[in-house]
Amino acid sequence: MKPRLRKKKPRPRVIRIFADRMAGRMRFIDIGANLTDPVFRGLYRGKQAHSDDFQNVLKRAYDYGVEKIFVTGGSLPDSRRAVELTRLHESLYCTVGCHPTRCQEFEKHPSGEGDYFDSLLSLAKENTSKVVAIGECGLDYDRLQFCPKEIQLKYFEQQFSLVEATGLPMFFHCRNAHHDFMDIIRRNWPKMKGGVVHSFDGSIDEAKAFVDMGLYIGINGCSLKTEENLAAAASIPSGRLMMETDAPWCEMRATHASFQHIKTRFECKKKEKWDPQCFVKSRNEPAAVIQVLEVLAAIRGEEAAQLARQIHENTQRLFKL
Q1: Which residues contact 226 (CB under 8 A, 6 or more apart)?
Q2: What is the pLDDT of residue 94?
Q3: How far is residue 189 from each of residues 67, 89, 131, 275, measured CA to CA in Å?
Q4: Using the 8-state DSSP alphabet, how is residue 49 labeled?
Q5: Are 69 and 33 in contact (CB under 8 A)?
Q6: Angle value at C-alpha 234, between 228 and 236, nearest 5 degrees
C-alpha cells in the first residue's frame, strides 16, 4: 500500500512574522483613516471593481489589535458621512472640519459660509459621543491649485471658533506651510484644547517646534518615506507620538526608506483579482498601523510593545476616550 500523502497546507493569506507574537498584547488606535472613501466599498472612480469589503477591512484591523479608528472628516458632506458611519460601529469615531484644499466650499455653500460653519458646529455638538476632534484643518501650500492660500488662511483660523464652542482638540494638516501654520497656532493657542499634526512629513526642527508648542505628532507611511523622514520621526519624544494609516493612502512601499524595517507583510492583490482575505494593491487600510509601529520601534531603538503602550496612552489622553 502506498503511503498517504499529506495535503499541503494552503499558504497563509497574511505573512505574520511579527504580528502573531505581538498583536495579542498590543492595542492600537488609528487616529486617521478615510473610511468614507468609496474604494472601501469596491468603487474606484465611479466603477464597481469588486464587492463591498468594508467589513473585511474592519475585521483585519481588529485581528491586528486596532481597537479604535478615527474616520477623518475633510468637509461638511464628508464629516456628515463620517458621523453616520461611526453610528454603525462601536469602534469608530470621527473628526468634523474642513480640509485646507476644500475651504472654498465655505464660500460656495448654497446658504453661505455662515451656514457652512454653523452646520459643522451643530454636527460636532449633536454627536459628542462620536466626534473626537475638530479637523482635518490647516494649511496645504503643495496643492494651491485646489484652494488659494488666502482662502486657506481665512478658514483655517475660523475653525478655531469650533474648538472654543466644543472644547475638542484639533486634528491638523500642514504641508509646506510651517511658518504660517505656526503663526496661526500661536495666535489662537488660548482657544485650543490641544491637538495633533497628522501625517507629519517635516524636518527635525519642525517636529521640535510642534512639540515645544505642546502638540502631538501623527506618523503614517507618508511620514517615513526618506532617511530624512526617519530621522525626524526618531527625534520626536515618545510622549508626543501618535500613529495612523491615512488609509486608503500612505501605504509603505518598497521604494521607501521605511520598508527595510517592516516585519509584518500583507498579501496584496490587484482589485481586478480581488480576494476578501487580502489587501487590495495600493489601497492602504487600518490593519497596517502595525507596520508604522514596527518602523518607529526600529528607528528609535525601542521595544515595540512598550512604545505601543506609550502611544496608546498619548491618544487616550488627548482625545479623552
Answers
A1: 256, 257
A2: 98
A3: 31, 33, 21, 48
A4: -
A5: yes
A6: 110
Tell me the mean pLDDT in the region 104-119. Answer: 96
- Are 225 and 272 in contact, with CB atoms under 8 Å apart? no
For the chain, give the longest Cα–Cα distance: 85
The pLDDT of residue 9: 43
| Cβ-Cβ contacts under 8 Å for 202 (sequence gap 6 or more) | 174, 178, 232
Interstrand relation of 131-140 and 170-175 (parallel, antiparallel or unpaired): parallel
Distance CA 198, CA 33 (A): 11
Asked if omega into 248 is within 30° of 0 (cis), the reply is yes
Report helix, strand or coil for 238. helix
pTM of the model: 0.92
**Residue 156 to residues 119, 179, 272, Cα–Cα distance (Å):** 16, 14, 40
CB 235 within 8 A of CB 207: yes
Cis peptide before 136 (omega within 30 of 0): yes
Using DSSP's 3-state secondary structure scheme, residue 217 falls into strand
Residue 285 contacts by C-beta under 8 Å, 6 or more apart in sequence?
33, 40, 57, 60, 61, 245, 247, 248, 279
310 near 30, Cβ under 8 Å? Answer: no
First to last CA, the chain: 65
DSSP 88: T
3-state secondary structure of 32: strand
C-alpha cell at 170: 484639533
Neighbours of 3 (CB within 10 A): 5
Residue-level length of the chain: 321
Q: What is residue 248's three-state secondary structure?
A: coil
Chain CA centroid to CA 194, Å: 17
| 3-state SS assignment for residue 192 | coil
Q: Which of 85, 173, 165 is nearest to 130 (CA)?
A: 85
Q: pLDDT tens digits for 74-95?
A: 999 999 999 999 999 999 999 9
Question: Domain 24-319 class?
Answer: alpha beta
The Cα–Cα gap between 266 and 281 comes to 10
